Amino acid sequence: MSDQYELLDSGNGKKLERYGDIILDRPCAQAVWEPQNPLLWNKATASFDRVGGLNWKGRHKLSDSWNVEIAGVAMKLSATDFGHIGVFPETRALWKWIRETLTAEKNKKGRDLKFLNLFAYSGGATLAAAQSGVQCCHLDASKGMVEWARENAAINNLENAPVRWIVDDVIKFLRREVKRGNQYDGILLDPPSFGRGKKGELYKIEDQLMTTLDLVNQVLNDDPSFVILTSHTPGFSPIVLSNLLRQYHKIGRFECGEMLLTGKPDVNDLPNGNWARWINDQTV
């Protein structure tokens, strides 16, 4: 499985990453140690910082967009004004797990499975799930991000895969799904610390997460496979996320950990967010 992403180094509040042939130097507050390979940073194609504003240096060296393959999923990348590029590679291990688990579950159960990706961004997890041949629902409040995800589907030859592309507020959508009786086998949700819905609805994780999880539990079918909860919000540690899932699932296996940016074995792993998942032991 091809993977053109690599963490090259980190330290002094920054991370140095390779995306295909492009090397980027960007902020990362948790990289509080000294860089391991200081000379390597001179190879950066472009850099971004927030000193006195939002600033790219060397952005003219970047194409308007370029494609890379990460964890077996081709992704279109593009430098945005806020320093993002259209992918969070710390989630790539979850993409692999979702694809492998849904493939095994589909073969075991011998029926169509349905996967729901909430706060789905540019669609890496959605497309990993689609590669397993299951039905997917991809939801994000940003029309632009959903369009970006659909472009990613096309470059993976998945433009005709059974994916529902939804631009909506998560809570409003889930309430409609409950009323419609739509249910899912696997669900991933990555709630933001703070966000806006399709019509400007305010989402604050500390206020809306419990409501979201209540609704997620209601749209699971009678024989589900898993729920994955991830977060980049400070304070929402792996144990906190696992405890949140334990409120809704009394039987099954719980796993949790940090999401990591990784490179070669001699490069420090860089934590960037946390995850927890409930796995229905009776089916997996």
Walk me through what this model shows.
With 284 residues, this protein is α/β, with parallel strands linked by helices. The chain has 2 domains: 5-77, Golgi alpha-mannosidase II (Immunoglobulin-like, Sandwich), CATH 2.60.40; 89-279, Vaccinia Virus protein VP39 (Rossmann fold, 3-Layer(aba) Sandwich). It is built from 6 helices and 16 strands. The protein has helices at residues 92-109, 124-131, 143-155, 170-180, 205-218, 238-246, and strands spanning 5-11, 14-19, 22-27, 46-49, 55-57, 66-70, 73-77, 114-118, 135-140, 163-167, 186-189, 194-196, 202-204, 226-231, 253-261, 270-279. The strands form 4 sheets. A 7-stranded mixed sheet has the order 10-9-8-11-14-16-15, with helices on both faces. A 5-stranded mixed sheet has the order 1-2-3-4-5, with no helix packed on it. Strands 6-7 form a two-stranded antiparallel sheet. The model has no long low-confidence stretch (mean pLDDT 95).
Layout of SSEs?
Blueprint: E1 5-11, E2 14-19, E3 22-27, E4 46-49, E5 55-57, E6 66-70, E7 73-77, H1 92-109, E8 114-118, H2 124-131, E9 135-140, H3 143-155, E10 163-167, H4 170-180, E11 186-189, E12 194-196, E13 202-204, H5 205-218, E14 226-231, H6 238-246, E15 253-261, E16 270-279
Parallel strand pairs: 3-4, 8-9, 8-11, 9-10, 11-14
Antiparallel strand pairs: 1-2, 2-3, 4-5, 6-7, 12-13, 14-16, 15-16
First CA to last CA: what distance?
Answer: 23 Å
Helix content: 25-40%
The number of helical elements comes to 6
- On the 0 to 100 scale, the average pLDDT is 95
The proportion of residues in beta strands is: 25-35%
Quickly give the structural class.
alpha/beta
Name of the CATH first level of the largest domain:
Alpha Beta
Provide the succession of SSEs.
EEEEEEEHEHEHEHEEEHEHEE
Parts with pLDDT < 50 across at least 5 consecutive residues = none
**Which CATH architecture of the largest domain is right?**
3-Layer(aba) Sandwich
Gross geometry: globular
The CATH H-level superfamily of the largest domain is Vaccinia Virus protein VP39
What is the CATH T-level topology of the largest domain?
Rossmann fold
- Give the count of structural domains: 2
Largest sheet entry: 7 strands, mixed
Beta strand count: 16
Identify the strand order in the major beta sheet: 10-9-8-11-14-16-15
CA gyration radius, whole angstroms: 19 Å
